[in-house]
Design a protein that fits this description.
By secondary structure, this protein is of the alpha/beta class. It is built from ten helices and five strands. Helix content is 51%, strand content 12%. Helix 7 packs parallel to helix 8. The chain is elongated and about 70 Å long.
Length: 245
């Protein structure tokens, strides 16, 4: 169905271009295979085939005694990640690794905490690359504190504070309110140069991202954040620079 809609859009654009063209081009178009009557006939056949496929699916549903069920409360299972990686099994990422090492260790130009999003579609290795950086020996010795946080769909500030504190100290603060969490977070990060990976970010709300960033700012100079995401919009919102892998 998506392919059909795409083809309709292409033909509509082609028709708009044609309407702005010369009489000669319109005449040639009428006798071509892409005139409106031919398109209607061709697309009609495609719609008929698509409907036949849908009917076949409906018939199979009945044959297998499947029933349609509407859920009002859908629970999304998070793709939880962690920082361990078997470095010997990862090959061919030397150039990307060096780029990230430079970002992590080179002096910054004025930002409180520089943020580098690594952006690409799923399965290309954003998280693996972040894990390599997290476990790189030169990175370990450069930062006083390393923090790994997996976000996925839910960008809840309170839950992120709990995850950050847990990763940094091992403390479980899930029963604390936001004010208490803020104090613990400040004590945790105060005066420390930290490296934080925020993995699998989907947030497209600039206000929420700014709220989290404000909670992390004001700490020791030289801290760095890497964000992994599949969305260029997320990368634009979160990043002070951009890395596409």
């Amino acid at each position: 169905m998506e392919d059909l809609i795409d083809e309709f859009e292409i033909q509509a654009l082609r028709r708009q271009v044609l309407e702005q063209g010369s009489i000669g081009r319109k005449v040639r178009h009428f006798f071509s295979g892409s005139n409106f009557l031919a398109i209607r006939f061709r697309m009609g056949n495609k719609i008929k085939k698509a409907n036949e496929m849908l009917n076949e699916i409906a018939a199979k549903t009945a044959n297998f005694h499947l029933t349609e069920k509407h859920e009002t409360n859908v629970i999304h299972r998070e793709r939880e990640t962690y920082s361990f990686v078997q470095t010997s099994s990862v090959i061919g990422r030397d150039e990307a690794k060096q780029h990230l090492v430079n970002f992590l260790k080179n002096p910054a130009d004025g930002e409180d905490i520089p943020v580098l999003p690594t952006v690409r579609i799923g399965g290309i290795g954003k998280t693996t690359l972040a894990k390599l950086m997290f476990n790189e020996e030169s990175v370990k010795s450069h930062f006083e504190l390393r923090i790994w946080v997996c976000v996925t769909e839910d960008f809840d500030i309170k839950q992120l504070m709990i995850k950050i504190i847990k990763s940094a100290t091992g403390m479980n603060c899930k029963d604390m309110n936001k004010e208490e969490l803020h104090k613990v977070l400040q004590d945790c990060l105060n005066g420390k140069r930290f490296f934080m990976v925020i993995d699998d970010v989907w947030i497209e709300d600039k206000k929420k991202w700014s709220e989290l960033k404000d909670l992390l700012c004001g700490e020791a100079q030289g801290s760095r954040i890497i964000v992994t995401t599949r969305s260029r919009k997320v990368a634009t919102i979160t990043g002070t620079s951009l890395h596409t892998i």
